[in-house]
């Protein structure tokens, strides 16, 4: 979700550009975690916090800190009981407003450290497409617990891989808190939340039991297919197993789309009017669960890469987007110049590849049949454009260290082919067009506060 191009306008009124050296931090968290209280402490704004169970903050608002060295954006609680869609659109505008230096996931201190980590996890897992160094935790209400920050940081890093955290209590001086946040700032990242990834990041569906039963049933059936595959794959070896994994991955991607159609038809979804966002949210919640089920198959498929493996990544000096080179030379190219066709990343020594037919029997059991052979080369077009479009030299770009697990993820998500809401579902295209309009810079009402007067 890093912004793929420089042509996108940020949701900032004309004339309110921030200096590239000014840290911009966005606060994200549940209702009642203390976001607005932290903002009041750091910015000298008043009347923003509330002790109620409903979200007091209704829109995203950026404020200068009391010393004019940093901009903090307060956002609505993303689990707000009322106006859930509107709140999350405001949060999306906050991400798009300006290059983000840190996303502070706010969590309220609890007697059990594990509970605090889990509250942070549910947000961190939605932001997997963002650079890990962009995420940090801010734990509030530290005056109510006896454990030390060092204990929490150890758990946070072990459980989530998040290395940065700050802490605040009712008696924490604003100067101390601001200095903690300043240490977390390492440079801005452009983020683009659009109609394609909005439903991955934000959960906007209600708890209507009939629909939840319908989506849960599809997820359970999806899990059964995966379990059946895991049992039957044991008889396949070598190249046959590799071919089977790739073919099954494609079959399951299509099953996700078919599940969207079935749930939509069963529940009479139209994706229109006031119910449209809630219907889309239920579909997205189901698909996101299915993506998790399919994750290890996608990882395993990526591990069969050879010439096209993601072993080196480099950063564009203009837009900071990170790339890996899968074909071509090491000289001049264009940021965003992707392969013209989708690449079959199986070992090139596989001259002829086996194909398989997968069928769900009446009893729900998966049936696998080897049905033929096909050539390696794929002619599927790469249909999306990314990058800032400026001329770059691959050899001269800064090298980015890529851990093994990130190499796998990058290879898998180079072309995300699992739509959260497929255009083939009736009504989906119109809903996404409406959502695109709502996320447009022209729909944003964010206004940066005036700088604080010098004292």
Any overview of this molecule?
The chain is an alpha/beta fold and 455 residues long. 36% of the residues lie in helices and 14% in strands. It is built from eleven helices and 13 strands. The strands form four sheets. A six-stranded mixed beta sheet has the order 2-3-1-4-5-6, sandwiched between helices. A three-stranded antiparallel beta sheet has the order 8-7-13, with no helix packed on it. The chain has a two-stranded antiparallel sheet with strand order 9-12. A hairpin with a 5-residue loop joins strand 10 and strand 11 (366-375). It is globular. The relative contact order is 0.14. Mean pLDDT is 78; it is low at 1-15, 306-310, 345-353, 376-383 and 403-415.
Please specify the SSE layout and strand pairing:
Layout: E1 24-29, H1 35-43, E2 61-64, E3 71-74, H2 84-97, E4 102-108, H3 113-124, E5 135-140, H4 149-160, E6 165-167, H5 174-184, H6 198-201, H7 209-232, H8 238-266, H9 276-302, E7 313-315, E8 322-323, E9 332-334, E10 352-360, E11 366-375, E12 391-393, E13 399-400, H10 404-413, H11 428-438
Parallel strand pairs: 1-3, 1-4, 4-5, 5-6
Antiparallel strand pairs: 2-3, 7-8, 7-13, 9-12, 10-11
Helix pairs in contact: 3-4, 7-8, 7-9, 8-9
């Amino acid at each position: 979700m890093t912004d793929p191009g420089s042509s996108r306008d940020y949701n900032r009124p004309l004339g309110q550009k921030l200096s590239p050296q000014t840290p911009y931090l966005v606060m994200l968290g549940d209702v009642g975690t203390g976001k607005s209280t932290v903002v009041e402490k750091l910015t000298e704004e008043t009347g923003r916090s509330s002790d109620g169970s409903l979200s007091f903050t209704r829109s995203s608002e950026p404020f200068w800190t009391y010393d004019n060295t940093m901009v903090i954006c307060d956002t609505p609680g993303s689990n707000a009981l009322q106006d859930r869609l509107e709140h999350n659109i405001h949060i999306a505008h906050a991400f798009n407003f300006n290059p983000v230096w840190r996303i502070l996931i706010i969590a309220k201190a609890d007697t059990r450290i594990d509970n605090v980590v889990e509250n942070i996890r549910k947000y961190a897992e939605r932001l997997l497409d963002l650079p890990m160094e962009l995420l940090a935790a801010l734990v509030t209400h530290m005056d109510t617990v006896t454990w030390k920050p060092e204990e929490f940081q150890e758990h946070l890093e072990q459980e989530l891989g998040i290395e940065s955290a700050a802490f605040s209590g009712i008696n924490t001086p604003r100067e101390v808190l601001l200095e903690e946040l300043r240490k977390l700032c390492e440079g801005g990242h452009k983020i683009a939340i659009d109609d394609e990834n909005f439903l991955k990041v934000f959960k906007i569906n209600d708890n209507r039991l009939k629909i939840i039963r319908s989506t849960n049933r599809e997820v359970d059936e999806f899990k059964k297919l995966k379990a059946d595959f895991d049992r039957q794959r044991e008889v396949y070896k070598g190249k046959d197993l590799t071919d089977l994994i790739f073919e099954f991955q494609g079959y399951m991607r299509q099953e996700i789309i078919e599940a969207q159609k079935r749930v939509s038809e069963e529940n009479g979804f139209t994706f229109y009017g006031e119910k449209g966002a809630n219907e889309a949210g239920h579909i997205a919640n189901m698909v996101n669960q299915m993506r998790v089920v399919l994750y290890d198959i996608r990882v395993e498929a990526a591990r069969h890469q050879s010439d096209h493996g993601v072993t080196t990544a480099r950063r564009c000096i203009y837009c900071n987007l990170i790339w890996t080179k899968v074909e071509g030379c090491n000289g001049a190219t264009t940021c965003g110049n992707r392969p013209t066709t989708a690449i079959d990343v199986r070992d090139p020594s596989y001259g002829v590849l086996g194909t398989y037919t997968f069928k769900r029997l009446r009893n729900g059991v998966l049936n696998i049949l080897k049905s033929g052979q096909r050539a390696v080369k794929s002619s599927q077009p790469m249909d999306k454009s990314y990058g800032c479009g400026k001329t770059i030299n691959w050899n001269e770009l800064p090298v980015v260290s890529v851990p093994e697990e990130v190499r796998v993820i990058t290879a898998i998500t180079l072309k995300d082919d699992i739509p959260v809401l497929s255009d083939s579902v009736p009504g989906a295209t119109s809903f996404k067009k409406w959502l695109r309009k709502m996320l447009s810079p022209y729909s944003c009402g964010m206004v940066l506060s005036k700088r604080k007067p010098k004292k």
